Amino acid sequence: MNELVATEEKLVSVPVHDSDVDGLLRLYQSGAVSTPLGKLRMINMPTEQGRARLAARMRKLSASLKEHDRKQIALHITAMLKSYRNAIRPNESARDVVATYLQELGRIGDEPAIPTWAVVLACNAIRRGDAPGIRHDFPPSTVQLRVLAKGYLDPWLTEVASISRVLDGEKFEPEQSVAERQRIGGLLADLGERLKARLNAERAEASARMSERAGEAMGRRLAEIQREWGSDPVPTIAGIPVSRELAQRIRRECDATRDAAAEYAIRNS
What we know:
Largest sheet: 3 strands, mixed
Number of helices: 9
Shape: rod-shaped
Distance between the termini: 153 Å
Strand content: under 5%
């Protein structure tokens, strides 16, 4: 049997770039350094929201990279082979040829199987005639198809690795030399002195403004007292002018005290 039978192919989900995740990775990796063991040490640590966003993205990509539907892959391999005039030799079975491709696209040792969508992209590129390194007059070998399909995984594998490093990273605490610590200590001390001087100046300025306002208020009050007395002399107590109302109150209290004293003297005489 050497006939390739046309079959119905389903749409497959292909990963797409996420600009938000790309921005987060650039932010968190900016200025980061790697330890000798490859652990990422970051200046900009992920926020709780950013960490959740990256974790969700990694789960989605990881699931996409593990998806391997042999039936769909077989359908697309069959369609790809049909684009060649003599893809199946007279002594070959189409089923066996497709099965050989399936076997080579599956798991090999520790290397996982090629995802369905990557095989679909590779087969479509071959059918369009724009697959690099693939001849137009002879079908690709199983190795060529696997290598071509694996090439579509590279950016997503890189993104998963980057996300994993960020999520497993730690805060970057730069080590400082004695001279650097002394320099920073001097800068902080100088800053403290300048802030202290500025605070004192602001306090002095505030005190001066308060004194000025108090003087202005006193001047206005003295003017009011002067107007109350008119042409009469303004009485003072310890050199401080008093209002007419206060003078009258004091006089009444003095009179009351004098009367009480006289009454007391009469009773006890």
